[in-house]
Amino acid sequence: MARCSVCGSPAVAHIRYQRRYLCERHLIEYVESKIRRSMSRYKMVRPGYRVLVPVSGGKDSATVLAVLSRLSRETGFEVIALHIDLGIGEYSVKSKEASMKAAGKLGVPLVIVSVKEITGYTIPELARKAKRPVCSVCGLVKRYLINLVAMEIDADAVALGHNADDLAVYSMKSFITQDLSNLPKLGPKTESIPGLAVGRIRPLYEVYEKESYLYALLTGTPFLHEECPNVDFNSMENRLKVHINSLEEEKPGVKITMLRNMAKRIKDYPKPKLPISKCKHCGLLSSGDECSFCRLTRRITGRPLGPKAREAVRSLTSSLQLAPRQDSAYKS
Amino acid sequence: MGVKVRIVPDGRYLEAEPGVRALDLLKLAGMNSESGVVLVNGRPVTEDYRIREDDEVTVVRVLSGG
Ligand SMILES: [Zn+2]
Ligand SMILES: [Zn+2]
ipTM of this predicted complex? Predict the structure, then answer.
């Protein structure tokens, strides 16, 4: 059996693009150092930052939470976890349990927001009422609630769990469909828009999906290894994932090369054309006078639920023990 | 006798002969060294590992849908 290139212990993984074998301990160190390097290369956090980590219960957000909770002590930033209960049957029940276990084990405060409690409907019910695909409604509601919670707790960044494989695939899809103004949104970091939206960071920007899985597994961070029942394995994204990984097997390092070069070229792609304005109901980011969450819920329930969601989230987060903030100088 | 191999998260099983390499198991399960990991008794092994008769073997698809 192969041995660790660093210490000679039995290897658990072959990092092919580095031509190295790593044991359990050195794989954990390797993934952490990779994340630490990306975070400093792309200036993701600063001391005093408050970072919101949305956790789905899956391996990637478990890895982000585990690494950030460790780095937060080194660098001096604050980490708060958020789980959104989507109401997708047994899958959501297990996802919530896994999120609670992970946050509990790591000692990170966790906010749980239930879509059903806020809107009166689960995600599948909302999709049915709106006559729209489940995944598109789910994405819209999640993006809205994540930003809402981040705004309410005055977070400086939202740390998303997209790994290198996800981002390579989203970028390829944007290229294939020539949706080039989507590319800047896929970078390692997007900036906050004061008063409207909190910027996003992607600590796993250069971490392969396999490395993220191994990290969560080997550090014993609880996660749910189950797919959402709505996943379509024939979607463009999922087909591209299979293809890019065949290419990666032949040409190790192709994913990371692509992403590093993308990050350098991001400013050369067209900026998203959507105007930035404020929703007249809830006051958050919108491309017109009504945000997509308020529009969706108004069409289904007769009234826009953004303001109600804000109220609910405010009371859910009021009991959080947040670190005192000296000033808002970080935001400028 | 063959070794029973569990595939996660699909829940399928396949059978393999002792001596088969982990990489071959990945290929049998429709994966490759990037998209899957082989666990023996709950611990990841590298692709050159040869399965033994009393191993508890799981092939994990690490790519998640989205
Ligand atoms: Zn080692
Ligand atoms: Zn709104």
Answer: 0.96
